[in-house]
UniProtKB/TrEMBL annotation:
Protein's gene: cmk
Highest classification ranks of the organism: Bacteria, Bacillati, Actinomycetota, Actinomycetes, Micrococcales
Protein name from the UniProt record: Cytidylate kinase
Catalytic activity: CMP + ATP = CDP + ADP; dCMP + ATP = dCDP + ADP
Binding-site residues, ATP: 31-39
UniProt keyword Electron transport, yes or no: no
Cellular localization per UniProt: Cytoplasm
GO function terms (MF aspect): ATP binding; dCMP kinase activity
Residue stretches making up the Cytidylate kinase domain: 27-236
Its EC number(s): 2.7.4.25
Signal sequence bounds: none
Primary location group: cytoplasm
Similarity comment text for this entry: Belongs to the cytidylate kinase family. Type 1 subfamily.
UniProt entry keywords in alphabetical sequence: ATP-binding, Cytoplasm, Kinase, Nucleotide-binding, Transferase
Enzyme superclass (EC): transferase
Length: 244
């Protein structure tokens, strides 16, 4: 797929997504469902010429694989084994995000409501999470200059990132955005289940509702999309100037 750089969840070395001569800088962004992390981080990465990692997509792909393999998600050991064997590649090109499991492109499939409703069961599996965190760290390290977003990037995956931000928004704004993202196909109860209830489940594995020490809060409730992107870019540019 022309224009994309892929990195495996396994340990073999792969080419970095960004220029190997570029200054090393990690931008870590956490936040709850519907806060706008993915779209904001992709836009910021494109502007900055950085790689982009959607760690949530990795958990979604793992969930898709478990369901495809008919793994009982209540069987913690079986889920962990499936994640360990997961043949996943994920693009770090912000303009061409592709997620493949084996030879199958699951980029769209992992966004289906059935995945959203089950992903917490994989994300809260301690061994599966540990495996995916290790893969995320390898991807970030290989890229060097990257915007990584998720739920525990600022505290667990990349606590030493030069820019650490908690991107948040009110529950009303998050529900509205997720509904628009899904094209109005979900009713209010379904949206609450996918956004608010999922956040409640995932908070058992990571704290993404409160900023840890040294993590800046970016509340996008009353900001436009571009204002939110510009705010994140501004924080990165300040860090770049400080590092120069």
């Amino acid at each position: 797929m022309e224009g994309s750089t892929f990195v495996s969840t396994h340990t073999e070395q792969t080419p970095p997504a960004t220029d190997p001569g570029a200054p090393r800088m990690i931008i870590a962004v956490d936040g709850p469902s519907g806060s706008g992390k993915s779209s904001v981080c992709r836009a910021a990465a494109t502007h900055l010429g950085a790689g982009y990692l959607d760690t949530g997509a990795m958990y979604r792909a793992a969930t898709w694989y478990c369901l495809d393999q008919q793994i009982d998600l209540d069987d913690e050991e079986a889920v962990a084994v499936a994640v360990e064997e997961l043949p996943m590649n994920i693009s770090t090109d912000p303009d061409h995000q592709v997620i493949c499991v084996g030879s199958q492109d699951v980029t769209d499939a992992i966004r289906e409501p059935r995945i959203s409703e089950k992903v917490s069961e994989v994300a809260t599996n301690r061994r599966a999470r540990s495996l995916l965190v290790a893969a995320q760290r390898r991807i970030i390290d290989e890229a060097g200059f990257i915007v990584a977003e998720g739920r525990d990037i600022t505290t667990v995956v990349a606590p030493d990132a030069q820019v650490r931000v908690l991107l948040t928004a009110s529950a009303e704004a998050r529900l509205r955005r997720r509904g628009a993202q899904l094209g109005g196909t979900q009713d209010a109860e379904a949206l609450k289940k996918q956004v608010l209830e999922r956040d409640k489940k995932d908070s058992a594995a990571s704290n993404f509702t409160e900023a840890a020490d040294g993590v800046a809060v970016l509340d996008s409730s009353d900001l436009t999309f571009q204002e939110t992107v510009d705010s994140l870019i501004g924080r990165v540019q300040i860090a770049q100037e400080d590092a120069a």
